[in-house]
Amino acid sequence: MPRGSTSSVAQQQRSVAVIGGGQAGLSMSYCLTEAGIDHVVLERDRPGHEWRERRWDSFCLVTPNWQCRLPGFPYDGDDPHGFMLRDEVVDYLERYAASFDCPLIDGVEVTRLRQEHGGFTVETAEGQIRAGQVVLATGPYQVPLVPRMAERLPEHILQIHSSEYRNPAQLPDGEVLVVGTGQSGCQIAEDLFLAGRTVHLAVGSAPRVARFYRGRDVVDWLDDMGYYRRGIDEFADADAVRLRANHYVTGRDGGRDIDLRAFARDGMRLHGRLSGVTGGRLRFAGDLRHNLDNADAVSEGIKDSIDSYIAARGIDAPTEPRYTPVWQPPDGESELAADRLSAVVWSTGFGRDYRWVQIPVFDGRGYPAHERGVTSCPGLYFLGLPWQYTWGSGRFGGVADDAAYLATKIAEFAASGRSPDVRWIAGTPESTYPADEFLLVPRTVA
């Protein structure tokens, strides 16, 4: 049911329309409310939907609870150095949405956004909204990606994307292959392994990080070192930084490392990158050793930077021995007979789907072209993108700063006299943009 001060989308007129009611959209609404700027928030489902419906049962945050600091609503629990479980995250977001007078309409999907007559038209199944400015806060995880080679697997194998995984009992008895070692892939593989399942894991190039080092959570050290406040403009390879995989680690059971070598020592079957499926056999590249070594090197490099920080400031911190590999993989490629598997979990990420945005603000790869969320189209903004400006931009820890920045830009634009006329225009003609010119379809992994 719709909430807040707004009950219908039919021919509304708003200074700002915020599309998306997750942590980014709610943060934007809070900052606009504080600034006294008229707006509406449109959410396809309800706050917390992504966390509620696209996370497995044992899911927990990988960053400490103290980093949950949405604007005006910092973490208020009794375990700041713990890691909220899935349902606790949902509760946190729902309480946030209820903590201020958010003009939220949920259960409404935006089907098209176009620019016309000096403003924007937001189309939904329930009507149109005219807005002077628009913030796209739909998040980075829009379209689950599964490689085409999935089509070559036998029909008896249950195949699901990581966004559909809930628990080990969901999968049929038998051996399971998890493809991908980002945060989701590693944690799902662990979840299955701890449940006693025979797990095969196709290991990619994602790096890892230690959970604790020299008496503290590594996140605490990195925060003190200013890592999370570094802007994307401080990096020479900004585009590459935005595309980097997240370091794998877990907050499960109070937090610990994810050591794939230890999993292998204890019985998990590790393979290199899945390279093909032919004749009922899955082929894996011979890069397992390289991928494990590289992940370890990244983790040890982070420890080097922490050591340097401690030494430079004369901090009294306990020392500890460095990581020693507990298992070494064989060299070369490997194969696995498909008939051994009962299920495959594709932890192969997500793509973007901005086909409904009929405004040319995307680069050649379909990525939003922006500077700190401000696009080249006056009055159009993005919020909640990974590395929109800092590491925390798409997370609970940094989205507040981005939302506050955009609220300032929105207010400046409105005060400049350039703010578009938001009066409703009856019988508004279709956009003059050729629709197909700007439709960008996320590509699946080849």
Automatic annotation (TrEMBL):
Entry-linked InterPro entries: Auxin_biosynth/cation_transpt, CHP04046_FMN-dependent, FAD/NAD-bd_sf
Domain of life: Bacteria
Name of one Pfam family that matches: Pyr_redox_3
Xref: Gene3D superfamilies: FAD/NAD(P)-binding domain (3.50.50.60)
UniProt keyword Oxidoreductase present: yes
Protein's UniProt keywords contain Oxidoreductase: yes
Alphabetical keyword list: Oxidoreductase
Name of this protein: MSMEG_0569 family flavin-dependent oxidoreductase
Organism encoding this protein: Prauserella oleivorans
